[in-house]
């Protein structure tokens, strides 16, 4: 399972990269705004900075909602660095743009996916990644993890190469459950990634080992 970090915060990206387990980064316009990154040039420079920090895929989202605009923006983003994955919304023109980019060998991430039908369309359009937002489904009392299971079944039935990128991950149980269900990738905050490290018995055990070591010295 690949681990992506879902942030535009360079310090957090550095920290996850230093852990040695990071496979990529996802961003979106809200995450950029949260870091105070606004304006086209600043956003472009920020993507370049992220690509320098990590080795893997970096999702960069288009703002246009029409086919021509998405193609223009996506081509400019893809030209920044081979690590860039063009992130497209799950709307009619987004599906068309996904087909356009996939036929040109440019990586895509179809975002804002909330149903199995949407995921099926993304795969048919040749998406590299499909991003079901499991946390936002949970927020409206729907089973986000069930969507991962449904997409896994559909993709396996037909051998679709599109990777399931579980997005809107909020906590460690989301990560573990996505891994059990066979999600190819998860993207989440640093807190959820680092949360995987923690177990009280590890802390208690380590404290005892160190105390016993001191007794003998
Ligand atoms: C995915 O690519 C999105 O950036 C993200 O996971 C959305 O998460 P949120 O629901 O926590 O905003």
Automatic annotation (TrEMBL):
Active site: 87
Gene: tal
The protein's annotated pathway: Carbohydrate degradation; pentose phosphate pathway; D-glyceraldehyde 3-phosphate and beta-D-fructose 6-phosphate from D-ribose 5-phosphate and D-xylulose 5-phosphate (non-oxidative stage): step 2/3
Lineage: Bacteria, Pseudomonadati, Bacteroidota, Flavobacteriia, Flavobacteriales
Keyword Nucleotidyltransferase: no
The EC number(s) this enzyme carries: 2.2.1.2
Catalytic activity: D-sedoheptulose 7-phosphate + D-glyceraldehyde 3-phosphate = D-erythrose 4-phosphate + beta-D-fructose 6-phosphate
Family recorded in the similarity comment: Belongs to the transaldolase family. Type 3B subfamily.
Compartments it resides in: Cytoplasm
Domain of life: Bacteria
UniProt keyword annotations, A-Z: Cytoplasm, Pentose shunt, Schiff base, Transferase
The protein's name: Probable transaldolase
Catalytic EC class: transferase
GO biological process: carbohydrate metabolic process; ketone catabolic process; pentose-phosphate shunt
Annotated function: Transaldolase is important for the balance of metabolites in the pentose-phosphate pathway.
GO annotations of cellular component type: cytoplasm
InterPro entries cross-referenced by the UniProt entry: Aldolase_TIM, TAL/FSA, Transaldolase_3B, Transaldolase_3B/F6P_aldolase, Transaldolase_AS, TSA/FSA_arc/bac
Single GO term (MF): transaldolase activity
The keyword Transferase appears for this protein: yes
Main location: cytoplasm
